[in-house]
Recover the amino acids of this structure.
């Protein structure tokens, strides 16, 4: 679960970096700083996925990525796309952990 979540967050950090390049020409420094903070927080959240705080921070940052679409319009689409990937990482990761736990308990009883 952590690997999938971290992959989504790190890739989303890169997308935010590219969005900053698009916003650099037309927007103020406050917009660039806020986008940079969001990009850095994606990396931090990827590192914190061992605890529940990382998952909560990652979920909150999904809203931040979508709302950055106010300044860089393609971020509405990309933020929604990565939000869906984030949800898939959580769902698929939980199923994988349940399957791994079932395998370990079955292998240990034999």
């Amino acid at each position: 679960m952590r690997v999938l979540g971290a992959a989504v967050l790190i890739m989303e950090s890169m997308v935010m970096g590219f969005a900053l390049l698009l916003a650099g020409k037309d927007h103020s420094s406050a917009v660039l700083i806020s986008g940079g903070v969001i990009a850095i927080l994606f990396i931090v959240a990827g590192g914190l996925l061992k605890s529940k705080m990382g998952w909560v921070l990652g979920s909150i940052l999904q809203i931040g990525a979508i709302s950055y679409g106010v300044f860089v319009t393609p971020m509405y689409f990309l933020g929604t796309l990565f939000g869906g990937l984030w949800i898939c990482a959580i769902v698929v990761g939980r199923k994988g952990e349940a399957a791994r736990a079932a395998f370990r308990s079955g292998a240990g009883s034999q």
